[in-house]
Design goal:
binds zinc ion; 288 residues; globular; mainly alpha; 7 helices
């Protein structure tokens, strides 16, 4: 847990960098929904062409601000990683998933930004706004580092406002995905590239472990759909995260849950079989 929230100091929130992500005394209900990618287009635009500024009123302090937003309809989904991370042709949509108030420091997944009770707003003002030092961006688009910092800010906000465990786990998952996006997009001639990638892969692994831990916990405390995912996709995601982080026994537990459920479609069973085979190969070659 030590370094998972490093970087919050630059926003004045170093005091929250050691916060316990999933362990609350009390929690409050929140709504959840997933975005879906949309249809492709012929002329491929650049990232900055897909971004526009949307006006937002802060649900915590009432301040009006502009937020960079992505026109998802123009982005082309090309593939999905084993853990369901979407890949778009010209933009990493994950960099634009957070809405953050530059004045009070309230940040959340954009789809949840307006869901804030007066009690939660008070907690954010008391624990975040008092020491928050602001957000400034120069460029038209967000860098990976900026996107990672925004997600960390949303994560501590979720802890402070006692958001759902699954919401925190999902933000951890996005942090892992963004870290992967960061090393994937690294220039080939950057000095010390291999070392950097190795350290980013370790960070990614920590985020994915936290995501798996939070989602597993959410399984006991929340009912489906969790994070907009129905049971089969959720179990598949857990199987994938446990597989990626080397927790093969847990991964197989979820794979078996999927494979033994007669009601599930072949599509998801095929994906689960893919994980089962990968684990069998690793175990057989003694790499475990
Ligand atoms: Zn605000």
């Amino acid at each position: 847990m030590a370094d998972i929230l490093s970087g919050l100091e630059s926003m004045g929130l170093g005091n929250l960098s050691k916060v316990d992500l999933f362990n609350d005394k009390v929690k409050q209900p929140e709504k959840k929904k997933e975005q879906q990618p949309e249809k492709p287009k012929e002329v491929r635009p650049e990232e900055k062409d897909l971004i526009y500024e949307r006006s937002v009123e802060c649900a915590c302090c009432g301040h009006q601000f502009k937020e960079k937003t992505i026109r998802m309809g123009k982005a082309k989904l090309v593939s999905q990683d084993i853990d369901l991370r979407p890949r778009y042709a010209e933009v990493d949509s994950l960099k634009y998933n957070i809405t953050a108030c530059p004045v009070c420091g309230y940040a959340a997944l954009t789809k949840d930004f307006s869901n804030l009770s007066p009690g939660q707003a008070r907690m954010i003002k008391e624990k975040i706004s008092v020491s928050f030092s602001g957000l400034k961006y120069e460029a038209e688009i967000y860098s990976y580092d900026e996107a990672i910092a925004r997600n960390k800010l949303a994560l501590v906000n979720s802890v402070v406002k006692r958001g759902k465990i699954s919401e925190r786990a999902y933000i951890c998952l996005v942090l892992g995905w963004l870290t992967r996006g960061k090393y994937d997009s690294m220039a080939p001639d950057i000095p010390g590239r291999n070392k950097l990638i190795e350290s980013l892969k370790n960070e990614e692994n920590e985020f994915l472990k936290k995501a798996a831990e939070g989602f597993t916990e959410a399984l006991h405390k929340e009912s489906f759909p969790i994070c907009g995912l129905e049971e089969s996709t959720f179990f598949y995601l857990l199987a994938a995260l446990d597989y990626e982080t080397g927790n093969y026994k847990e991964s197989m537990r979820f794979v078996e849950k999927i494979l033994t459920n007669k009601a599930l479609p072949e599509r998801i069973k095929d994906k689960a079989r893919g994980i089962k085979e990968a684990i069998a190969e690793i175990t057989a070659s003694g790499k475990e």
